[in-house]
Amino acid sequence: MNTVVTDKAEMVASTGDVVVRLENIGLSHDHGRTFILRHVDLEIRRGEFVAVLGPSGVGKSTLLRVIMGLIRPSEGTVSLHPSPTAAHRPAAMVFQDAKLMPWRSVRRNVELGLEGLGLTRLQRHERAMAALDLVGLADMADRWPRQLSGGQRQRVGVARALTVEPDLLLMDEPFGALDAITRGALQDELLRIHARRQGTVLFVTHDLDEALVLADRIIILEGHPAGLRGDFAVGARPRDNTAPGMRAMAERMRRLIAGEEDPGADAAYWQASEI
Amino acid sequence: MTPIRSIWIRPLLGALGLIVLFGTWETSIRLGWVPSGLLPAPSSLGPAWLEEVRSGAWIQAIRDSLTHYMMGLVIGSVLGMLTGLLCGAVPLLDGLLSGVVRVLRPIPGLAWVPFAILWFGLDTAGATFVIAISVFWINFYAAYGAVQAIDPDLYEVAASFGHGGFRARLRTVIIPASAPGVLAGLRTGLGQAWMSVVAAELFGVPGIGARMMQASSLLATDLVVVYMLTMALLYALTDTAFMLVRKRLLGWQG
User: Fold this and answer.
1) Sheet holding A37-45: strands in order across?
2) pLDDT one digit per residue (tens) for chain A, 275 residues
3) CA-to-CA distance for B225 and A46, rounded, in angstroms?
4) pLDDT digit string (tens) for B133-192?
5) Which of B153, B156, B160, B183 to mutate to test the interface with A (most CBs of A within 10 A)?
6) Which helix (H) or strand (E) holds A41?
7) Contact of B212 with B202, CB cutoff 8 Å
8) How would DSSP label each residue in A140-175?
9) For residue A48, which of A207, A213, A167, A165 has the smallest C-alpha distance?
């Protein structure tokens, strides 16, 4: 079950240098008797916006934590290739429910990752304020997290991750708990920010529509143990998600997520030209 | 109800309740419902207090008791808090001490009085020891529980942003997150320590408790009540001071 459906994503991707490379990642909590993740190989290049799509509970968040270094894989290697810039962190994460520290003001929450980077208090302050400005919450800097709405809290979570200028921004279903209107607004904002800073994003979601709105490339994670079942280049913007090619590709992804299709059974790959 | 009225209504009701209590107390003695030998009349408390102040005994008793109180409170609270925090944060230590805690925990501070006298004598150190033990457990469990209740995801957040080691976790998560629980325990201990002060001093260590004991052996019930009210006053003062500090520390809770 190692076959991955691909639509020549590598053609699009080969223009940038590799930010993170996963080689044969496997994760087991019982010394190799059962695996949660197995044989995961993945390369993400600078500037890509990649969505990891899969059913709930398949191990998407776990994969993100392995990349973040919060969980040590049982097999394989994760290699991050950070840029040589000073005072930044190679990877940063946006968590599902923002997970702000309630005893820190909004600004001090954003400064969390800046502490320990050798910055002065003033530099930390300035960078945090710039990040808050980016997500439109500069005037909330002195509030407490409990005074913010769910959407605002998640914006602060995004600012907290962006301010460390990560080579790789990991997002763990960050908008999953929000109402549809707020989610849409934050998706738009994320795309705007991404277009501006040209960073690299790995975005976990179980929502196919969300992946189609946000990502340039969609990876399907499915199975027990979970592995990569598909790798799709979604195409350039502006894109029409109602075009026949897109709809057919979306249907293909849906079947892969649902486990209704064995990726190895079908040799016909999706061509980028069809979209 | 307007906001201004709701601010004042509770203290006013509280004062009214006190007036009713002292009023019925006074009248029931005046009318002879209660024999005056069993209970002093509130009107006799003022003169008794003035006499006690004039002799210097009142100030001296407060000074002695306050010394026991502060020393016992500080020693017991700091030790209890630290042990509780560490047990909550370090599973190995938690496991090692779980048996010890089970054995020692149910023993009240007062049960240690014989040893307090034996080891420290009938003086400040003995009283301090008894008070420290009784507040130790309150602070231990408050801190322990507060650490156990921390959202484990916050450790993940801290680790993701470069605060991964034990000391970094302690500083960025454990201490600030457990502060409300720790301070709640400290406040409970603030009251518990006053109870222990009297109990410890009833055995003869000089202070408010000892003075109450002397007064009761002379059937000076008015003096006993004067010291009861003195304690209530001291407790109210320490608790108010504490709440002011707490408000500054935990502004984020609103």
Assistant:
1) A37-45, A18-27, A75-80
2) 445 555 544 444 444 689 999 998 899 888 888 898 989 999 999 999 999 999 888 889 999 999 999 999 999 999 998 888 888 999 999 999 999 999 999 999 999 999 989 899 999 999 999 999 999 999 999 999 999 999 999 999 999 999 999 999 999 999 988 888 889 999 999 999 888 888 899 999 999 889 988 999 999 998 888 888 888 888 777 777 778 888 888 888 888 888 877 665 443 333 333 33
3) 79
4) 999 999 999 999 999 999 999 999 999 999 988 999 999 999 999 999 999 999 999 988
5) B160
6) strand A37-45
7) yes
8) GTTS-GGGS-HHHHHHHHHHHHHTT--SEEEEESTT
9) A167
Distance CA B146, CA B142 (A): 6
CB contact under 8 A, B157 and A102: no
Considering the domain architecture, whether residues B18 and B95 belong to the same structural domain is answered as no
Number of domains in chain B: 2
Domain count, chain A: 2
In a domain, A267, yes or no: no
A47 plus A2 within the same structural domain: yes
Asked if the Cβ–Cβ distance from B252 to A160 is below 8 Å, we say no
Paired residues of A200 in beta bridges: A168
Q: What share of residues in chain A are helix, strand, coil (percent, to 5)?
A: 35, 20, 40
CB contact under 8 A, A146 and B163: no
Domain boundary among A235, A250, A265: A235
Domain boundaries, position B5: 1-39
Measured between CA atoms, the residue of chain B closest to residue A67 is: B160
Q: What is the pTM of this model?
A: 0.81
Chain B residues within an 8 Å CB radius of A93: 160
Q: Are residues B130 and B56 in the same domain?
A: yes
Task: Provide ipTM, 2 decimals.
Answer: 0.84
CB A123 within 8 A of CB B177: no
Q: How far is CA B173 from CA A71, A107, A134, B122, B164, in A?
A: 19, 17, 27, 43, 10
DSSP class per residue in A44-98: EETT-EEEEE--TTSSHHHHHHHHHTSS--SEEEEEE-----SS--SEEEE-TT-
Distance in Å, alpha carbon of B175 to nearest chain A alpha carbon: 11
Task: Name the 3-class secondary structure at A260.
Answer: coil
Q: Which residues of B touch A160 (CB under 8 A)?
A: 161
